[in-house]
Structure formats: C-alpha cells, structure tokens
C-alpha cells in the first residue's frame, strides 16, 4: 500500500536516510520489492520535530507529487536537522490523491502514519467516524481510513496511553467490520510519536501484516563494519524503523514480529506482544 520511515536519535539531516541510502524511501517510492505495490507515487509526506526545542509541535510538508520528482523534498531534507522525523510515500487505494490525504497526520505534538487499510472502509466509515469525539471530528481534513483511525485512537486515549488506545481503536474497527460481514477488517503497520518516543505497531486481523523492520544498535553496527565510512556519520543513538530495509548489509535490519509493538526511546528498543490471542 505505502512505505514509511521513522528516525530517532542525534539530530540528523533527513536526506541521509530518506534520499541517500541504497534503498532509500524515495527509491522505494519507485521500486518497493517488499511492498504490496511496487510503485508508491501518489504523494508523500514529511513530518519533523525541530532540534533544540523539546516539547515543540512537529512541522509538516505534504505534496501530491511523486517523491522521486519533488525538488522541494530534496531541498528541505538536505537542509534541516531533526532528532526525530517521519516520512511516508503513498500508494492510494481508493481515497483521492490530495494533500489532506498524505501522511503523516498531526495532532498537537503527535504524529501518526499508517501502511495498510481498513478493509471496505466505505461500509464502516459512518460508524467509525461517528465514534470520534465531537471536539476532534472537525480536525479530520481528508478522506482516508488512516486519518479516521488516528482520530478514533485519540478519542480512546492515545495521548495518555498510545498502546492501549491503539488496541481499543483496532478492536473497535474489527468489531464494526465483523458486524458488516468483513472477515479481516484491519491490516497494516502504524507509527506514532509524541516527539520523544516512537511506537511502531505491526498487526492485521488475518495475522499477515505488511513488512516492518528496525535497525540494529548503531554502536554494534559500527564495530561490525569498521570500514564502512558512512556508518560513522551516525550517532550512537541513531535508529530507524522502516517498512523495508534501507540497504542489504547483513545484520543491519531486524524484522519486527507479527502482532507486536516496538517502542523506541532514548534507551533504545523494546518490543512486546500486541493484540495476540
């Protein structure tokens, strides 16, 4: 459906991972070997937290241009630095190609992006959007199932407990979907951040979720590959979570297990089961 990337660590010029790796996110927008669709050219988004201002709300840049054809993306990601950023390339699966449908989505200091779908969203859209808190409903600017899911999770307490809120939101999606005769209502990988922590979910009702990986410890990688100069440009806390690996180096990327959530903060990764029977 789509491809996405989340970075956290020392302030970094985002182009280093969005543009300059062997299988960068922009490269994946043209050729995604592990994606459901090979080409993800229906717009893109970039969201970043500014360096040196803890607690600040993130900035956003969305475009309906293919990521590989947008000079503004190259200018922006080659100029700024950020300690935490999200980027997403879109393969539209129904909702129109417009800026308001590009990920990531933002609420105050929170960012959200999704690769996947709520199956037969047109059948469940009314029930799910009517479950969104009235104070949040006007903030839904686009027409995607992903944005509706984000606001449903906000309604169910995402700001206080992202893991519990996402579990409640997905269970509601499944219950409503089953009520409408949909066998496998939920599919996807999801990234959420408050500017300090990243939560990355891999879950589908069918148990066959889209791919998701996280990088290994950077210090370990620098010891494993002392001759690769590029690795020395990253700080010890540099981590990425990605839809598919950014290069082919053995040991650099580890698969996030099915039905789990990987939490990335200043201490590194921790992974726990998510909505397992």
TrEMBL record:
Which UniProt key words apply to this protein? Glutamine amidotransferase, Transferase
Give the matching InterPro entries: EgtC-like, Gamma-glu_amide_hydrolase, GATase_2_dom, Ntn_hydrolases_N
Pfam family name, one: GATase_4
Any single GO molecular-function term of the entry would be:
transferase activity
Note the PROSITE patterns from the entry. GATASE_TYPE_2 (PS51278)
Show where the Glutamine amidotransferase type-2 domain sits.
2-277
Keyword Transferase attached: yes
Q: Does the keyword Transferase apply?
A: yes
Membrane-traversing stretches: none
PANTHER family (UniProt xref): GLUTAMINE AMIDOTRANSFERASE DUG3-RELATED (PTHR43187:SF1)
Name-wise, this protein is Class II glutamine amidotransferase
Source organism per UniProt: Leifsonia tongyongensis
